[in-house]
């Protein structure tokens, strides 16, 4: 077991799966000789050749559509979108095609593919290199949506995604790539899609988060502990399907739900989490549900002042938890 | 690469048996199509997307490839499906949304083909998406060292979509064996070709991709068959994709919901009806002695009966169940 | 005042606004000579000519992108998407461009445009002519999302949308086009964006709905009344921004919230409504929030049996309300 | 329409004053660019998108149009902005995300131009979207009977996007006065032109649209200027859009985050550095006696000072406020 970066988990999962299964291919802009603009695929071009590590022409609909075709004909493509913000041109291929092919063909066809994309802010990426796009895809049955927050999960979840028989949106918070370090177990292992991760048990308030926000929530919980507040942190990890049992069990224990996400507030992932709790565990609640989120402005500004203000962070999370307990 | 124009006169490779089968496919396609329309007008079928006028083009390309090739037809391609073994019964089951419909179990609108066993890839309604799938399919086959070709069809209006461009670009960069078959029927619903492109022929679009492009008489079964066959051979030889344009016309409205009198003259429609591809094929088989007039008559009766039987069967067939609706969202 | 169809309200709004303001143009597939596949623009081509009623080449990204350019240069385009299902190729132009132009240019540019699209099922449209897409756009600050459910609202809201200085997604439930009839006031009038419509006051349960579902909710309420149940029906009408005051006021009155939508359940519009109530009015609730929705399957099947089962309807709504009161 | 190749030798219409101004614009562009890079390496600027090597192309097309025309540059087009009056101070304010940044109030990454007063239309990062906006803009002007041209620029890699196709198709169908200017620098980040298209020249892409296409030496200011001017005149005369390809090279990495040694040789880069457009322009102004060597020296010092001053100003300038972040989502 060695301590590694989150992006190492991504790279190792791809390398091992490609080595183990000749059907696995990677395609995207600059994934070949360049090894990806974040270097997620560094070394793969040399190892597996240009037939399997494919520098795509600049067009996301093309990348998604070609990947679907590959998946329909026996391959297991990993399609990289250079930034989640640039996935929007592929929306039709993902929503109309990848998500619906099994259903519309009554199980005659299916599309085992992964779409990987770096999302999220805090890197001076401004409006178009900071977006969180997970919410759009959570409304699309037929897809799965996964967000890792530790190096081990990055690797284990990506392996599960590659082996999955259905299309998986695998979203990597770009700020976590080299910020989040941790041990990755040696050898082959997977982390199941659909199961939340109990980051830390607590009894006063449940904090639900994912990606970078799960890391921040953990930091906030450590801070809160010093003040005598016991916060439970649940890393959702899979956003579609949500781990309903884990969410409801935690609320039944703490009776308070704080949901943290960086995306625009309205109709962000936490709206569904809140709705789920309000439907299934209303009588468990000792306080109103609270969402701590990015604001409802079109996207994250470039300048430091506003970018910092846009992002939730450990201090804001701790403050929100305190307020929930005080009320 | 210069644009080529060609009009093949006959496909030397076709046996008399193959020509008779193609003629029968065209007749069956036409008959299904006509009867579906009648069922719609009788209030029995909510929606029909006809192919009338396209039969030569469709049966032409559907019969020119191998079972190991891949077929990505579009919603108008009943003739392609029929040429690959899709029966009247199946067409009628799909029309009425019945459980036995092999393309989708009654989930999709009629005309959305898909049949894994025959390498007919499932299609959707948003136009042009399948064109990219064909590229990925061809890529996968080549990666495995197989010589399969992926053939996909679309309307000329659909060439305006971004996906069309991205697909032709990919296929030409990677020199993939993809056939882009445009059934140019002069209209995208009401929109004439002049509102979809500033070139005369769809095949000119190939030029910007360094790709071979060919315009073919789409009402001539032999020309369509031959052009497809040759383009597939080019693809197999590693010479890259081809853009094939089959010029034809749909002689009925766009769909059962359309009223084509709002956008085109009756004279124009009548003109094209006189160029009917089935009459032309009939004239050929009779002139060449492939069928006697009596045999032709018998064949037409046989086809009518097949369609009658199919309607009866489909009308009796059960609908899918409510429980079925929740299945196959993901692997089970 | 004359009784008309909902689609007449759409057509009249376009005709009157085009007659009053030369900047208003209509573009889309088959909107010209054909008058639109639903005939929403019938007569406009003859009246305003091909310069202002523009048959677009077949491509939704093109339609949206060209409309944005027009709006940037002094026109007020109405872009028709033939079916909401076919709007997905325009997702990038709508989300990256239309929604963000004012913000990213710090108010130097803005895009007064309307995107109209028929959505929803119940017409044997199958997977690709039945989709509800409103939820995707509710997550996009910079846009407004409007859904009329009466002929008068159709007209008044569309006029407001055309006169709005920002991009408005104007979604028309296609089943309501000729099903829903009602009086349209004579002369020029507008209905404000951002305000819900009180369809019917009640005291036992609030039913929140929009589009066809608002019509069905009204029918359910009439049925419930016979049983002595007083249901309040609120037609949300604008989904972005939601009319928070109207929603919270209604919950404060009835203490029960039933949210009805036809879209896929997970992350549908009602998730945000539920989250809002759970955050702002938790202590008002006498019963868990309930959502009555389309199922989480990729889209509506073609066959009659499954289509009927997919759609919420007045009976299902009444049943859900009864259950909420019984518990 | 046949593809044309042209290399204009000089724009007869340019006055000595105009040439001197263009030379100064190019120098200023280069100097801003170099200093931004230095600021980035010093840790003072989070992100730089350079234009080095593109100055002739950019100032060439930026100066060839009228103030009433519309400009839709892309992120690399500092030279276009400068030629339209964008100052070093503005560039540095944007670089550091300061409130006074006129393009976005510090909201966008540097290089995202937009200036209503000068008809520079706000741009974004997703490539190719602006190409469609240009079409709509041209349509609107023509509808009002105005003779404005809309000129938009993009990289050669961006021609692979679906939006590029849809835009060229629209513009050619409606014969709109749009100039599609491709600054072909041989790479889309790491992707060479051969991985973006199967044709030699981007201008060949015009053929599929029945559109005029022209390949120009993008390091020759005069050729770029003249080609743009002529294409704009064609557009104004109602002869439709033009696809212009300016062949050039970026002599530095794609952005401050890129490492171009992973995908191209140092020899190739050095070769292109020898074709530097600014040295070429300098040689011209000296040879033609438009400036003496002393005047040239003085001009360069002046430009350096301007950039020094700009950096000082921008560093002192305030950031936007937190409250500002919530503004301008909708009309207020
Ligand atoms: C993405 C998308 N936009 C719009 C439609 C609606 N639509 C269905 S068929 C059609 C016209 C297609 O014309 P063409 O490609 O020429 O094929 P044809 O129907 O003439 O065979 C349109 C606009 C659609 N199905 N998909
Ligand atoms: C839609 C989209 N996809 C991907 C990117 C990431 N990206 C930024 S620049 C670039 C390459 C563009 O190459 P080209 O068009 O040749 O312009 P150049 O940068 O060479 O001037 C890419 C892939 C993007 N900005 N937008
Ligand atoms: Mg057509
Ligand atoms: Mg380039």
Structure overview:
Chain A has helices at residues 6-20, 44-48, 60-72, 91-98, 101-104, 134-138, 151-163, 176-179, 212-226, 244-254, 269-280, 304-310, 314-326, and strands spanning 2-5, 24-28, 53-55, 76-80, 114-119, 144-146, 168-173, 181-184, 197-200, 205-209, 231-235, 238-240, 257-264, 290-294. Chain A is 38% helix and 20% strand. In chain A, helix 10 packs across helix 11 (269-280). In chain B, the strands form two sheets. Chain B has a six-stranded parallel β-sheet with strand order 1-7-8-4-3-2, sandwiched between helices. By secondary structure, chain B is of the alpha/beta class. Chains in contact: A-B, A-C, A-D, B-C, B-D, C-D. Bound molecules: thiamine diphosphate (2 copies) and magnesium ion (2 copies). One thiamine diphosphate sits between chains B (76, 125-127, 154-158, 183, 185, 187-189, 254) and C (29, 58, 60, 82, 86, 89). One thiamine diphosphate sits between chains D (76, 125-127, 154-158, 183, 185, 187-189, 254) and A (29, 58, 60, 82, 86, 89).
| Number of DSSP-assigned strands of chain B | 8
Number of strands of chain A: 14
SSE succession of chain B: EHHEHHHEHEEEEHEHHH
What Rg of chain B is obtained from the alpha carbons, in whole angstroms? 19 Å
- Which ions and ligands are bound to the chains? thiamine diphosphate, magnesium ion
Low-confidence stretches of chain B: 1-11
Write out the strand line-up for the largest beta sheet of chain B, numbering strands in chain order: 1-7-8-4-3-2
Put simply, the count of helices of chain A is: 13
Write out the strand line-up for the largest beta sheet of chain A, numbering strands in chain order: 3-2-4-5-7-6-12
Strand count, sense and closure of the main sheet of chain A? 7 strands, mixed
Mean pLDDT of chain B: 96
What is the ordering of alpha helices and beta strands of chain A? EHEHEHEHHEHEHEHEEEHEEHEHEHH
Form type of chain A: globular
Strand content of chain B: 5-15%
Could you say which structural class the secondary elements and strand pairing of chain B correspond to? alpha/beta
- Contiguous low-pLDDT stretches of chain A (5 residues minimum) are none
First-last Cα distance of chain B:
49 Å
Share of β-strand residues of chain A: 15-25%
């Amino acid at each position: 077991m060695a301590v590694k970066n989150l992006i190492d988990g991504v790279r190792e999962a791809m390398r091992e799966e490609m080595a183990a299964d000749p059907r696995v291919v990677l395609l995207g802009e600059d994934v070949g000789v360049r090894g990806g603009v974040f270097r997620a695929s560094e070394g793969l071009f040399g190892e597996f050749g240009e037939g399997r590590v494919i520098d795509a022409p600049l067009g996301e609909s093309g990348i998604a559509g070609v990947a679907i075709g590959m998946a329909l004909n026996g391959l297991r493509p990993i399609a990289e979108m250079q930034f989640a913000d640039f996935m929007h041109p592929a929306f039709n291929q993902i929503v109309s095609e990848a998500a619906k092919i099994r259903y519309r063909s009554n199980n005659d066809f299916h599309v085992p593919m992964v779409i990987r994309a770096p999302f999220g802010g805090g890197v001076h990426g401004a409006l178009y290199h900071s977006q969180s796009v997970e919410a759009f895809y959570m409304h699309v049955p037929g897809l799965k949506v996964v967000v890792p927050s530790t190096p081990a999960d990055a690797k284990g979840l990506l392996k599960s995604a590659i082996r999955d028989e259905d299309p998986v949106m695998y979203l990597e918070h770009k700020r976590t790539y080299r910020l989040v370090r941790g041990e990755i177990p040696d050898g082959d292992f997977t982390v199941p899609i659909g199961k939340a991760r109990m980051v830390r048990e607590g009894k006063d308030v449940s904090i639900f988060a994912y990606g970078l926000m799960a890391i921040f929530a953990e930091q906030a919980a450590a801070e809160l502990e010093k003040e005598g507040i016991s916060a439970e942190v649940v890393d959702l990890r899979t956003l579609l399907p949500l781990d309903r049992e884990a969410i409801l069990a935690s609320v039944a224990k703490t009776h308070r739900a704080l949901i943290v996400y960086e995306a625009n507030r309205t109709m962000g992932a936490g709206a569904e989490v809140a709705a789920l709790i309000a439907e299934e565990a209303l009588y468990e609640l000792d306080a109103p549900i609270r969402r701590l989120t990015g604001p409802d402005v079109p996207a994250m500004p470039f300048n430091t002042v506003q970018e910092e203000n846009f992002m939730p962070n450990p201090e804001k999370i701790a403050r929100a938890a305190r307020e929930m307990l005080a009320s | 690469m210069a644009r080529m124009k060609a009009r093949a006169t006959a496909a030397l490779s076709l046996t008399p048996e193959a020509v008779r089968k193609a003629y029968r496919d065209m007749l069956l396609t036409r008959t299904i199509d006509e009867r579906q329309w009648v069922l719609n007008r009788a209030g029995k079928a909510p929606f029909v997307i006809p192919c009338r006028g396209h039969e030569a083009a469709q049966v032409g390309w559907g019969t020119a490839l191998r079972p190991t090739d891949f077929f990505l037809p579009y919603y108008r391609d009943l003739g392609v499906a029929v040429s690959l073994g899709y029966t009247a019964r199946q067409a009628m089951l799909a029309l009425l949304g019945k459980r036995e419909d092999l393309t989708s179990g009654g989930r999709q609108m009629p005309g959305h083909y898909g049949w894994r066993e025959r390498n007919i890839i499932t299609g959707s309604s948003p136009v042009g998406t399948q064109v990219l799938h064909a590229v990925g399919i061809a890529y996968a086959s080549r990666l495995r060292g197989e010589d399969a070709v992926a053939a996909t069809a679309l309307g000329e209006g659909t060439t305006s979509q971004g996906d069309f461009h991205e697909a032709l670009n990919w296929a030409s960069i990677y020199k993939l064996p993809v056939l882009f078959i445009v059934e140019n029927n002069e209209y995208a619903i009401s929109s004439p070709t002049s509102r979809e492109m500033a070139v005369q022929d769809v095949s000119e679009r190939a030029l910007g991709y360094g790709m071979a492009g060919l315009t073919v008489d789409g009402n001539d079964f032999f020309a369509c068959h031959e052009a497809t066959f040759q383009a597939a051979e080019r693809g197999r030889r590693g010479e890259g994709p081809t853009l094939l344009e089959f010029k034809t016309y749909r002689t009925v409205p766009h769909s059962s919901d359309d009223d084509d009198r709002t956008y085109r003259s009756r004279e124009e429609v009548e003109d094209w009806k006189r160029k009917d591809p089935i009459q032309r094929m009939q004239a050929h088989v009779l002139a060449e002695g492939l069928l006697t007039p009596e045999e032709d008559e018998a064949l037409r009766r046989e086809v009518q009966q097949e369609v009658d039987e199919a309607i009866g069967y489909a009308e009796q067939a059960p609908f899918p169940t409510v429980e079925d609706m929740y299945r196959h969202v993901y692997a089970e």
